[in-house]
């Protein structure tokens, strides 16, 4: 298709025409599902926009949102965009000092928070942020400095009545090249950078991504879709814009801990996810078979092991197709029921999806595609779709998105989705974006003869052993995590003779496995010999698939998982390798003492 530049409000307005008046979004709050109709949504967007205008927000100004996913998030977002201002999203898990930095760096004029609890961490810091003129709370609060969301809507409604043409006038003046959002990269190194994305950047990405859907666009109209990734991340936000463009009712869940129950309630048709959820699902399915015995157990694992040979590009035929149907009836259909029985497609992004998980999801009858992109590319660069689902790739680049591989194997991208630059950081912008519009992704990869894009590793993650061999740690880590007994891994080896690893076992599964052998480990589990023996077997299995220099020769077990709160993970769950290496320096050195 030939894309015509547009603004996000215009794009979403067309999508809203596909909804009935009573449908739009549903938010889970305190265990209850709260419905927001299309009529309510449209009215609140207009009135909240006018409320912001009355507070002094003008075209080009910045408004930040610090909230969990909910219908109000989308209302605030579209209201901000409709008056020509830019949305500055902040993760609900973002530390207070980073929030202060983002508010100051972005020059946000208004700050929107979810509630008093979320505001608490920044309350003592925000008083020094002079550019913030008003703070709005989405939910009820007794805090005197916070304006209520409903109160801003009420005053905005009055303002709109007094100025009936202003909202439409402001919306019509928004241009495709205007900045729609400043998204601050989570920053595995250094301070966060504000990525400037225009309306055209994101709208073009929505339109071209619609062309790669695993089903006809009309199939999504009226279907339920589930949203659990943070809207502050460009991946989920762009996906939600796609949902609106297609007329799907969006269900915002409350906590990932309840997602199993939410699947059964929502019965979603489609889901955007990161690999971690799919990895946990696959691990859970594998371990579940241990509860069975005899013929039932044998049949279960016969079906599960068949998924390892499944190739969606070349589905089974003949006798193998018959075997697959039997496996589907006996096992795969039961797994699909865990997702509500209606889940037909999944798109995975944010990190590399292992071939094993990719094959598993497609084999059990849920079309699973992998995409690749960055915040700076709005985000999708390439994505698989039926007919273009080669194992180990992220599909082919979107239409109008050019990809080439530099001499040092870095992936370079050019297209309508590439950011305008980093806010107030011309030098950092020049480092990654040249005059010809080519953006340096910082990822290593290759294009095959058919145009499929392979991602090998982050350029900064790769390291050289003292032997001169280069190692891509993510490849090793993904293989290890595919074990049902390993939760997190960080591979070490820069300027060392061999690779080692810090491993966080999936202790629940490890304990269940050892109890079947009539052994119950005691805390600290990381020091238990039997636990270590079990993990050693998993490491040995993975080493057989690796080159000699990639093999993990030694490892240390960690008792507690890496987390955002401890500073070891970014808000998007990426490992801060430098932080981890510094924190566990003693454990790392213990693995190399013989050197």
From TrEMBL:
Q: Which InterPro entries does the entry mention? A: AMP-binding_CS (IPR020845), AMP-dep_synth/lig_dom (IPR000873), ANL_N_sf (IPR042099)
Q: Which PROSITE patterns match?
A: AMP_BINDING
Q: Is the Oxidoreductase keyword given for this protein?
A: no
Give an example GO cellular component term for this record. Answer: membrane
Residues crossing the lipid bilayer are none
Which Gene3D superfamilies does the record match to this protein?
Answer: N-terminal domain of ligase-like
- Which keywords does this chain's UniProt record carry? ATP-binding, Ligase, Nucleotide-binding
Ligase listed as a keyword: yes
Which SUPFAM superfamilies did the record assign? Acetyl-CoA synthetase-like
Task: Show where the AMP-dependent synthetase/ligase domain sits.
Answer: 25-423
Name assigned to this protein:
Long-chain fatty acid--CoA ligase
